[in-house]
Design a protein that fits this description.
27% strand; globular; Nucleotidyltransferase, domain 5; single chain; five-stranded mixed beta sheet; alpha/beta; 156 residues
């Protein structure tokens, strides 16, 4: 089974503020670009949403390499989330985990791909000569700049 590669990014104009997310999916010779926008959100919520939407866009379970320039996303999903779950979605400082709704959604999206080999979470330096990371950044920024009053809010 061929691995699907996904580059994700999310951001806001102001934080919080209008936000956008993007995912670039690569499978063999095929490339698909996805993006979305929200009125009132945060950078971290858009980073999470980009990964969720990218994973959920895949029609069947497959091995995935997901690249992000967000340490929050990568460290959260690879280091922190299982402790949060054990602690009843509380941090080590006993405070509620921010963005719990999206972390739970991301866990479900990633779990769909476990039977096929799961998701390998890769960190890539942002704004550093990686064409696909730069494309995801451009798509997310374009989405954030195009927010209208008709778009939903994404504040938890």
């Amino acid at each position: 089974m061929t691995t699907v590669t996904i580059y994700t990014d999310g951001g806001c104009i102001g934080n919080p503020g209008p936000g956008g997310w993007a995912a670039v999916l690569l499978y063999g010779e095929h490339r698909k670009e996805l993006s979305g926008r929200f009125q009132a959100t945060t950078n971290n919520r858009m980073e999470l949403r980009a990964a969720i939407e990218g994973l959920n866009a895949l029609k069947r379970p497959c091995p995935v390499e997901l690249y992000t320039d967000s340490s929050y996303l990568r460290d959260g999903i690879t280091k922190w989330v299982h402790g949060w779950q054990r602690n009843g979605w509380r941090t080590a400082g006993k405070k509620p985990v921010k963005n719990q709704d999206l972390w739970q959604e991301l866990l479900r999206a990633a779990a769909r791909h476990e039977p096929a080999g799961g998701v390998a979470w890769q960190w890539v330096k942002g704004h550093a000569d990686n064409d696909l990371n730069a494309l995801a950044d451009e798509l997310a920024n374009t989405a954030a700049r195009s927010v209208t009053d008709a778009d939903p809010e994404d504040a938890a």
